Structures are given as C-alpha cells and as structure tokens.
Amino acid sequence: MNRLGSFLINLAFYLENSSRYKKTKEFFYNLLENEHYKYKKYFDYVMIIIIISSITIIIEEVNHPLYYWLNVYDIYIVTTIFIVEYILRLWVSDDRRRIIIEEFENSVFLETRFNTKKVLKRIWISIKDYILSPFSIIDLLAILPAYREIRILRIFVLFRAFKIFRYSKNTVQFLEVITSKRTELTILFLLVLFIVFISGVSLYVFEAKTNPNVHSLLDSFYWAFVTISTVGYGDITPKSTEARVFTIAIILSGLGLISFFTSIIVSSFTEKIDEIKEAKVLTKVDRLSYYYLICGYSHLAELLAQKLKNEKKNFLILETDPKKLEQAQKRGYLCIKEDASKKEVLEKIQLKDKVKAAICLAQNDIHNIFIALNIRSVSKSVPIISRTFSKNSYKKLELAGVDYIVSPYQTAGLIASKIITQPIAVEAISDILSKKKNAVCDEVEVLRNSFLENKTIEDIELNKYKLILLGVRRIDEKGKKFYFNPKDNFILKAGDLLIIMGYSISVSHFKSLVIESSLRYARFRK
Amino acid sequence: MHDLENNILLIGYGRYGEKIAKFFEKKDIYIIEISQKNLQRARQDGFEKLFLIELEDDEALNHILSQKNFSHIFCALDDEEENVFFTITIKSFDKKVKIVAICESKESERKLKLAGADKVIDTMEGSASKIFHLIEKPAVMEAIEEILFEDEDIDIREIEIPPNSFLEKKHIKDINLKKLYNLILIGLIDKERGDSFVFITKGINHKIDAGDILVIIGYKEDIKRFIKDLKESV
Q: What is the mean pLDDT of the segment spanning A106-113?
C-alpha cells in the first residue's frame, strides 16, 4: 500500500466519521439541489438577481465607460460567487469518499492490495460525469467571461442568462422534454448537416467564379443554411439557372426539415404533458401545510370534492383513468394521474407529513383494500375512510387499516327505515347535513377563559343567538362521552364541544364571539 | 299513528334492497325482483312473499299491486334507470300510492321526481355528507349518529298538533319545551305559512294551530309524555 493510498483511506474514514462534515454537505446539498428545502428558493432568487445584474452591466458597457466598482463587481465578485457555486455543486454531486471506502472494504475482504489507481480512476469518472452534464457546462461557460482578453468570451456572458434556467423548475422541465427526444434530434441534425454540405458545395462549384457575393466555401455553407431554414436573407442569391433549379430542391427539403423539427418538439410535449401537469400539481401540494387525499374520482368523490371546495379545504385527487381525471381537472381540482396503491406515489405526495385524512373511493372493494393497505404501510397514524360495496368487505377493510367505513347501502337502509314514519324529520336532518337550506350542524369548542367556560347551559342562553344545542361532547379520563340535550344546570368546562344547530351565519357569529372573548381575556391578563 | 296497515312493497333485492329490508318486519315486506339470483338470496335471508316479474311485464305488476293495499313502495333496484322505469309504471296505475325511490345522482333524482316519486333518497349525496363531516366535523357526525341510530332511547319525531290542544294559539317563544318536557324543537311546518319545513333557528315567532307539525328530538319517554299531554288536553 503506497503513501497516497493510505492517505486517501484515512481521509475517507475521517470524513465518514465526521458528523460536522456530513451536516455541512447536507446543508449545501439542500441549498443547491433539494426542491423541498425551505430556503432553496431564496438562494435561487439571489442568484437570479446576480445574473441579471451581470447582464445589465454588459449591456451598459457597450455605450458607456464603466464605473470602476461596477467593473470590480462584475469581474471579481460575480465570478467568485460563480466559481464557489460551481465547486460546491461538484462537491455535493456525489459522495466520493464512499468510492474509497468501498474499494478498501473490498480489498480487505478479498485480501488483495488496495488499488490506488483504480480508485482514482473511479473518482475521476464521477467528477467527469458531473462536469460533462449539460448544466455543469453552462455553469462553467458562465465563469469564462471573467477572462476579458479574449473578445469572443464576452459572448459567454449570455450563458449567465442560461444559468437562470437552473433556478427555474419550468425551464428545467423544458430541457428534459427536449433531451427525451435526443435520437430524433440527432437524426435531424445529421440530416441538416448533410443537406447544408451538399448544397453548399454545389453552390460553390456552380457560382464561385461568377457570383461576386460568393467568396469562399464558408459563404456558400452560410447561404445553404439560410436557405434551408427558410429564413432567406437574400444577401447571397444564386444567379445561374442551374443553381436556381437546384435551389428549388433545397427549399423544398428545407420545408420538410422545419416541419420535422416542429413535429419532434410538439410530440415530445404532448407525450410529456401529463408529467408537466403533475409536476405543477406537486409544486402546489408542496406549498400546502396539510390536505385531504381522495383516492379515485368516482361519483361519490365528485360530491365530496364539491363540499370540500365550498369550505375552501385543500384536497388532492389520485385517479388512473384519464377520462375521469379530465373531469376533475376541468373543475379545477388538484389531481394527478397516479395509482394510490403504489408506495412511491404516496411518498411523492408527502402523505406522511401532510395528509390529514385519506379517503378511499375507488370503484371496487378490492382496490380500496389495496389502497388502504398501502397507506397504512406508509403511515400508521393517518385516518383512513373507505367506501364499501359488499357487506363481506367490512372485516377485510378493517383489517387493512381503515378507521371508518362508509356504506351508501347501509345509509340508504337507515334513511328508508325512518322515511316512512318520519318523512319531515328525515328531510330536516338531511337538509342539515347537506347544507341545503343554509341550516347547519357544527361543533364549537369551549375555549379556555371564553365566556362559555364554567357557565351553565341556562346562563349562555343559546336561543338568544338563534341556535339550538343538541348536546355536549366531553373528553375526560373515561374517554369520549356525548351528553345529549344536557340539563339547564350542566356546567361547561374548557375543551367541551358544543354540538349546535342553526343557520350558518348564526353559527359563525357565535364562534367568533367565543374566540374573541377568549382572546380578550388573554390580552387583559397581559 | 301510521301502523294501521303496514304492507311494504320492496322492488329490488340488490345491494340497496337487502339493507332496506333489514329494517322492517319480515312479515310486512313483499319483494319484487327481476333477477332470479337476487330473489333466491331474498329467500335464503328468510323472506317469503316474493315475486319474480319481467321488467316490462306491466300486467303482472298491476296484478300484484291490486292484491294488496301497500302503504309504501320502495324502488330500490341497483340500477337507477330501472328505478325510474318502475316509478313511472306504478304511478301510471295509481297516482296516490306513495313511492320512495333510491338514486345515486342529482340527475336521477330529478328524473325520479318527474316520474312522480314522493321521496327520493340520494345515497351518494348522503354518503358524501357523511364523509365530509367525518373528516371536518367528527364530533357533529358522532352526535348525529348517536341521536339517530345508536342510542335506542333517543328519537326524532314529527308530531301533528291535534285541534284544541293546550298548545293551540300559543306562540313558539312562549313555550319552553325543554323546561316542560326536556325536548328539543328543531322546526315545524306552520300551515299558515305554507307546507314547507322551517327551522326554529330562523327566529320566527310562529303561532301554533291545529294541523301544524312539530319536529322534535328527545328521549322516547319524554316524547311519549308530551304526546299524551297533547291528546289529553283536547
């Protein structure tokens, strides 16, 4: 084992064991590459401002002499920032110490010599892979203009503009779309090269001696390209009959190439449109602090979504059938074409951190069970509600981790049993639940120090607020208990929930009074 | 009040029909089915008065209807269109018979009402409300379930005011049903103001007359006491 080898191994293990090193690296990784990191966007904004300022300086420089400090800023400060950023990105792009450790462990295991050369080669490949990636090239080119001696490098300032792409998710997607059609674009590029070559050479052969505008082979290549792109500046035009006949053919082939190019771009976008939409939805979901997850856009889901939307609650719909998905999209709901029974989907939508409750409304019990199982495998605590179709599925759904099972058939049976003898009462209740006549049932918490605390039911005179008290729900050591229609001398405690009924305006008025009184007390205490 | 003769005709013994049938006395129920399989299931579940008819066999249907005087008819097939079809067929025989129909969408509800159904149960709307309350207002949902279904002692009832009772000509705000009977008055149909149900929380000081219908929630004992007092005061 040579000295370099042992140095590398020591260094690698030192870094591997240093939590500070790892933390620092993670911080920079988050800042530079992690879309979900809170402060990444501020970093991006700062970089965009720097880039714009640099470009502005270049434009200003064309006609006016630069202030000294502006020049310093542009050459030294901006460039330094870019270089530091470049190095940091290179650093976080891969864990290279792992390569050394892996090789070392292999050599110990196989009882062979530690191969320093091989390790260095692998590290070099990892670095090279990063340097040759498109974004890294743009980053590098953006640093070059600092070297002012070569005039052409000045144009690379514009690469600083390209750098903006890095900080915008949409443009990153655009590039991804384009690169997905790499083969087609390569073919097109070769075709263009071929035609430019043939036609350029032809024009040179036909007219180099007779046409005063054609000085060199480069001129005729330039002409060929301007012609097939259908731009046709007209600074160079064919004069001889032969060349003109030939030009017609070039123009026709040019039209073909252009439409080929357009169709590649268009088709790649239509292929990727779902992904782009999904990415948009996911960004929105990312901004929500919590939301409800609806799996399957069935008729029931549609009704539920409407209710949630009316109450301005956030929800996300997962549906695999494109037709149904389109209906949901038309209504402007957040939805993505994904299967809720796949684990990576639930991770992508951050189920564990953000979903307040998941509702399984797929078209059959089998699928609902699947989804419930999958959700339970990702999160133990999120409440799951599922619809059921067959009475045989109750047990299975419960086993799969569903907390609450809703059966439209059961509901229908219950309502039907009451509707014969008590039609008006049933209608009243269903009006309350569906909010048809603006009358609602709601829960109001007895807040600490509000005017409700330690008062009797008689004292609070709910009928003054045009409200009816149905009952009080109290949680104590024994668990939850619902006190139906409590007596007038029932004393309310903080934390109790009043179940009240009334018009929505009375309910919200009463709620705000309760909150206000609680806050007023807090302020008064201060 | 309503139990004079309780012959119920249930059309359909699918997913809906079987659940509805459970809530009634087996002897009161007559079941019509168009599928042999479902009818077989009904037989296994212990129902005896079963009829198998063709969907468009009006004569057979009419024959069954004329045999008995059904107090209520449920159209509870799993297929919404068939429910509409049966509703309209039965209404074409007899306009007065009361039909309760099951549907799963607003669109079918409209059609069933046009076809003449007296009550339409939109099961999907109901389920959606239920899920919504479960996730947003769980305490409300628990309370309502407790009142309506779970606590056997609590009932929701509509009570027609008999003529010359002690409530007649009194104003709603002057009577305290909670103090007197421990009952919650939700709302009423005030015949002076039309046939529609008005929630008490609207704040109108209704004058009670004979024929008005009060909707109340309370313990069964208290309700009984109230009804008894009403009748005795006549």
A: 84
